[in-house]
Amino acid sequence: MTVTLTTAATPETPDIEVDVLVVGGGGCGLVAAIAADAAGASVAVLEKQSRLAGNTALSSGSIPGAGTRLQAAAGVTDGPDVFRDDLMRVSGPHDADHLTERLAGLSAELVEWLIDEAHVGLTLVAGYKHVGHSVTRLHAPLSRTGADLMADLEAEAERRGIPVAPGQPVVELTVADGRVTGAIARDPDGRESRIGAKAVILATNGFGGARDLVAELCPGAQAATYAGATGSTGEALRWGRALGARTGNLGAYQGHAGLAARSGVLVTWTVVERGGFVVDASGQRIGDETLGYSAFAGVELAATGPLFMVYDARIEADVAAGQPEFAEIARMGDAVAGTTAGELAQAIGVPGDALAATIDAAADAAGQADAFGRTAWGLGALQAPYRATRITPALFHTQGGLAVDRDARVIGADGAPIPGLYAGGGAATGISGRDGGNGYVSGNGLLSALGLGLIAGRSAVADAAVPDGEPNLKVQQGVTT
Ligand SMILES: Cc1cc2nc3c(=O)[nH]c(=O)nc-3n(C[C@H](O)[C@H](O)[C@H](O)COP(=O)(O)OP(=O)(O)OC[C@H]3O[C@@H](n4cnc5c(N)ncnc54)[C@H](O)[C@@H]3O)c2cc1C
């Protein structure tokens, strides 16, 4: 239910009173709102943008679940301990180990809750491995788009009659006696509304779109092209800092090493899984691409000059068949073709001898470790005709944020929760290590967003002691539908 807020009669009187106010209408926010509604609370969602189009809608909608019934049906044996160990192996110790444990433990319940309670269509993603996972564990909409995930969550919020107010950013939190009591939102005409709440959930994502915060906290990603949603400008972090909240893992981010430089379409890392590799302007490789798309973004950021993903026509056809969006690369003219290594080299402007030698060396290495330690070569040696796409490293989203406990309560300077304040997704501390893009495992973003959203929605209601079964307060005044 889309709503517009109206202006307060007096500056101190809330226009609206709800049990749970959710700030940010992305994946975290909608899951938190649905969970709080399901627990019997009155809820409202405020969204900065004119439509719900945060990072969740841009994602491929892949959500890890360890021990789901979908895995069992596919014969995959998995569980929270295996998943936690996978996550910790990639991230190393960080500021939110307790969240790794909590979210790995929740992941199967999360996936099944999304299907059963939030009516989100999810299937187990088979057919290719995922960075950091020892078993097949990612669940996604059939279309593999976050847009469909968001459409299902929006439909569920609508079905439940949860008021969602787009185009009405929160500009300030209200606080009384150390307790967060609500927020002030601004409508497109600049009028401000005051919303009172027993609990406020910050679901505003991270600060990837705020150049000042990226420069201060994630300097390693400064040179990357920002490819996330424009709404991720770090308000939760700024408000939390002002309230003295603790923070964690602020230098960590999800990068992607394969943004097509011309069109901005993604060269999926499945191309690397099938045997593709990256060369620089000298026609030589720059590292082990199988580190993963996020970690390899760091390798690319340290390189100079143009970079190219080199693959062949077999890989192009194979990957495009499973991931139709990759076919866009060829359709949009981002895939340069060459019937020989020399022809390809000429087309992309790198030395022919060097590129031919690089292709030969990769062929020799197939099946064993090469000079960079790469051992996996997918379909084996590249075969003519060849393809190349110019790529550039991207920043998808930041992974650091406000410190939260196992119940998604924001932690204050004294180590105790700040009463009334919760955070999830990119607004909260992530589980991808302390620094850089190396600690990111596929699905970490949505696991933190949807998992902490589910936790925050439930614990906000429990803490506010909303009696189960009591009529929802819903929005009482100051709202037009
Ligand atoms: C191209 C791409 C692909 C990705 N693929 C995956 C994937 O497959 N799996 C995975 O796990 N992760 C993936 N990620 C990361 C994932 O998208 C994010 O980690 C996740 O969506 C974050 O969810 P969120 O709810 O915290 O933020 P968002 O979905 O961005 O929602 C935050 C919302 O808050 C709003 N907002 C911000 N400030 C305010 C304010 N002041 N007032 C009101 N509203 C506000 C924003 O406009 C936005 O709508 C991908 C990211 C990108 C960019």
Report on this structure.
The chain folds into 2 domains: 4-249 and 399-480, FAD/NAD(P)-binding domain, CATH 3.50.50; 253-395, Succinate dehydrogenase/fumarate reductase flavoprotein, catalytic domain (Flavocytochrome C3, Chain A, domain 1), CATH 3.90.700. 32% of the residues lie in helices and 22% in strands. Residues 6-11 and 468-481 have low confidence and may be disordered. With 481 residues, it is α/β, with parallel strands linked by helices. Residues 23-29, 46-49, 52, 54-56, 58-62, 169-170, 203-205, 227-229, 231-232, 235, 254, 396-397, 425-426, 443-446, 449 line the site of flavin-adenine dinucleotide.
Give structural attributes:
481 residues; alpha/beta; FAD/NAD(P)-binding domain; binds flavin-adenine dinucleotide; Flavocytochrome C3, Chain A, domain 1; eight-stranded mixed sheet; seven-stranded mixed sheet
Alpha carbon gap, first and last residue: 7 Å
Query: Which architecture of the largest domain per CATH?
Result: 3-Layer(bba) Sandwich
Bound molecules: flavin-adenine dinucleotide
Mean pLDDT value? 91
Specify the CATH homologous superfamily of the largest domain. Answer: FAD/NAD(P)-binding domain
Beta-strand content estimate: 15-25%
Low-confidence stretches: 6-11, 468-481
Helix share, percent: 25-40%
- CATH top level label of the largest domain: Alpha Beta
Total tally of structural domains: 2
> Using DSSP, what is the number of strands?
22
Radius of gyration: 23 Å
Report the sheet with the most strands, covering strand number, pairing sense and barrel closure.
8 strands, mixed
How would the global form be characterised? elongated
Secondary structure class reads alpha/beta
CATH topology group of the largest domain: FAD/NAD(P)-binding domain
Count of helices? 15
